[in-house]
Amino acid sequence: MAGTAPMNLFDVAGRAMSSQLVRMNTAASNLANAGVVSATEQDAYRPLKAVFAEQVDKANGLSTVKVSGVYRSSATPIREHSPGHPLADANGDVWAAPVDENAEMVEMLDSSRQYQNLVETLSTAKQLMLDTIRMK
């Protein structure tokens, strides 16, 4: 962060909100693809996972998170025997996305709550600043 202004509360919260939004979007993508089947194991959807990293501002000691990347899971797709399916191979198998819908819902709810907490923090900080200005 050399050459940039020191982070403040709004920078920290904004970056954390952006990270939670990425987390929510990856969970939504995974949920949207749950149950999707493919003709081959290689073509099957694999869940996404947002990975965070800490970002520290050495000028003032504040830290926040940033998304260091969004990665595909290495989970093995689920082989399902469905001979009547149009994508079935010669053995009558299709490959389903290995998405744990319950875990993805928990991920989405948790990231949504974290996002809401950050919105409330910013709202409180704004109100405190306005109250201080009114006091002169």
How would you characterize this protein structure?
The protein has 136 residues and is α+β, with helices and mostly antiparallel strands. The chain has one domain. It has 2 helices and 5 strands, in the order αβββββα. It has helices at 9-32, 101-135; strands spanning 37-38, 48-56, 63-72, 78-81, 93-96. Strand 2 (48-56) and strand 3 form a beta hairpin. Helix 1 (9-32) packs antiparallel against helix 2. It is elongated.
Helix and strand arrangement:
Layout: H1 9-32, E1 37-38, E2 48-56, E3 63-72, E4 78-81, E5 93-96, H2 101-135
Helix pairs in contact: 1-2
Percent of residues in beta strands: 15-25%
Radius of gyration: 22 Å
Shape: elongated
- Given as residue ranges, the uncertain stretches (5+ residues, pLDDT < 50) are none
**Elements, N to C (H/E):** HEEEEEH
Average pLDDT number: 92
Terminal-residue CA separation: 34 Å
InterPro entries: Flag_bb_rod_N, Flg_bb/hook_C_dom, FlgC
Keywords: Bacterial flagellum, Cell projection, Cilium, Flagellum
Family: Belongs to the flagella basal body rod proteins family.
GO biological process, one term: bacterial-type flagellum-dependent cell motility
Task: Please give a quick description of this structure.
Keywords: Bacterial flagellum, Cell projection, Cilium, Flagellum. The protein has helices at residues 9-32, 101-135, and strands at residues 37-38, 48-56, 63-72, 78-81, 93-96.
